[in-house]
Write a structure and sequence with these properties.
mainly beta, elongated, 47 residues, 36% strand, three-stranded antiparallel β-sheet
Length: 47
């Protein structure tokens, strides 16, 4: 996880494959997903 040290807000995260690659044919460890956020705000509860 990447967290803003001042506000504690989430900037992004990555998923790392650490055990077996299966059919992916990648070297372990491997980043398999990465997300970053430009805006992260609280929203009202849906009705």
């Amino acid at each position: 996880m990447i967290v803003d040290p001042r506000s504690g807000g989430l900037w992004g995260y990555e998923e790392v494959l650490t055990t077996t690659a299966g059919k992916l044919n990648v070297t372990i460890p491997a980043v398999i997903s990465y997300r970053s956020y430009l805006v992260a705000e609280y929203a009202p509860m849906p009705r």
